[in-house]
Amino acid sequence: MAEKKGNEKKENTKKKNKTSRPKRRFRINKKIEGKTGTIFIGHEDPFLYFPDMMSYFSRDEIEKVHLKARGKSISNAVNVAEQFKNRFSKEVKVEVKNVDIGTEEVPRKDRKGKIKMSFIDIMMTKLQDSESN
């Protein structure tokens, strides 16, 4: 009986250790407004954004997808757009319709004032079959 209690304690501590470590999960920040889908690009690997882009472009009601990024994530947004356009050209024909760049004021992390930060908004649209021929 004493051995069983000792084993149970070891098992309980193992379970606690497993649950105490947070699993790193990437959740892509996205939204749909009318016929437009928006994906906010961060520092994650570009491949993590492709499934969401494919799901948007596979819907008939979505006409365009905006890729939005700020600061150091701007280069990642450009990579996502270009890699998606080139890698998935057989599945979905897309083109970059418009690119907006600018500066916006963003609240600081310590919430004391605002800072100016650069942003990019890449608008991608699905090409119709008649346009691609």
From the alpha carbons, calculate the radius of gyration and give it in angstroms. 22 Å
* Main pleated sheet: 5 strands, mixed
How many structural domains can be distinguished in the coordinates? 1
Helical percentage = 25-40%
- The CATH level-2 architecture is identified as 2-Layer Sandwich
Query: Any low-confidence stretches, pLDDT <50, length ≥5?
Result: none
Q: Looking at the structure, what is the overall shape?
A: elongated
Structural class: alpha+beta
The CATH superfamily is identified as Alba-like domain
Query: What distance lies between the first and last C-alpha atoms, to the nearest angstrom?
Result: 78 Å
- Tally of strands: 5
Q: SSE string, helix = H, strand = E?
A: HEEHEHEEH
Placed side by side, the strands forming the largest sheet appear as 1-2-3-5-4
Beta-strand residue fraction: 25-35%
Report the total helices: 4
Average of pLDDT? 80
Biased composition (Basic residues): 12-27
Region (Disordered): 1-27
Organism: Marine Group III euryarchaeote CG-Epi1
Biased composition (Basic and acidic residues): 1-11
Written account of the structure:
This protein has 133 residues and is of the alpha+beta class. It has a single domain, classed as Alba-like domain (Translation Initiation Factor IF3, 2-Layer Sandwich). Helix content is 35%, strand content 33%. It contains four helices and five strands, in the order αββαβαββα. The chain has helices spanning 2-20, 50-58, 74-87, 129-132; strands at residues 29-33, 36-40, 64-70, 94-107, 114-126. Strands 1-2-3-5-4 form a five-stranded mixed sheet. The longest helix is centred in the first third of the chain and has 19 residues, at 2-20. The protein is elongated and about 50 Å long. The mean pLDDT is 80.
